[in-house]
Automatic annotation (TrEMBL):
InterPro entries: AlgH-like (IPR003774). Belongs to the UPF0301 (AlgH) family. Signal peptide: none annotated. This is UPF0301 protein C7I55_09615. PANTHER family: UNCHARACTERIZED PROTEIN YQGE, UPF0301 PROTEIN YQGE. GO terms for cellular component: cytosol.
Length: 186
């Protein structure tokens, strides 16, 4: 019996014409995907008017050693809730290891660790997440809404947010300029 093609640990790239402006050129790090649904963290857009230091200050955490970087718009669900996608060299009690690629943490202990200079070496902060109910993502994949790719650590951590979507397609050998909103069946 074939195992279901779950996408945990992969990147989802929105196809042109996805039909939802919130996901136009979206890049989503898939953290959970199973028969019950899916959860991913968007890495294709930046939250305006707040940086990491501003977030820490709102939480009464002294920024200390933390760099003042942009915060990503993780998705439309619970946009006030924070998440960190990070390297596997740090793990807290509530951290979820995502395959052998990265971990996901949504607790204050990682923010404090980063501020104190003892957090993960590589990380991305986001507010909100993208979520799908059972079978919903599979329907969107069949409707040509998304493209899944393995991605890379460079794409995840080092790529400029404005180039991440096109770089994701290029890493899969696809020229995004050749993608079209039209599709059909053979």
């Amino acid at each position: 019996m074939d195992q279901a093609p779950f996408l945990t640990g992969q990147l989802l790239l929105a196809m042109p014409g996805i039909g939802d402006p919130r996901f136009e050129k979206a890049v989503i790090a898939m953290c959970v995907h199973d028969e019950n649904g899916a959860l991913g963290i968007g890495l294709g857009r930046i939250v305006p008017r707040i940086t990491f230091h501003g977030l820490l200050k709102q939480l009464d955490i002294e920024p200390g050693a933390a760099p003042d970087v942009a915060i990503h718009l993780g998705g439309p669900v619970e946009p006030q809730r924070g998440f960190l996608v990070h390297s596997l060299d740090w793990g807290g009690q509530e951290s979820i290891q995502v395959g052998d690629r990265w971990a996901l943490t949504a607790t204050l202990d990682i923010l404090k660790a980063i501020a104190e200079g003892r957090g993960p070496k590589r990380w991305i902060a986001a507010l909100g997440y993208a979520g799908w109910g059972a079978g919903q993502l599979e329907q969107e994949l069949c409707g040509n809404g998304w493209f899944a790719t393995e991605g890379s650590d460079d794409l995840l951590y080092d790529c400029d947010v404005d180039n991440r979507w096109s770089a994701g397609f290029k890493s899969a050998g696809i020229d995004p300029r050749l993608l079209t909103v039209d599709f059909g069946t053979a």
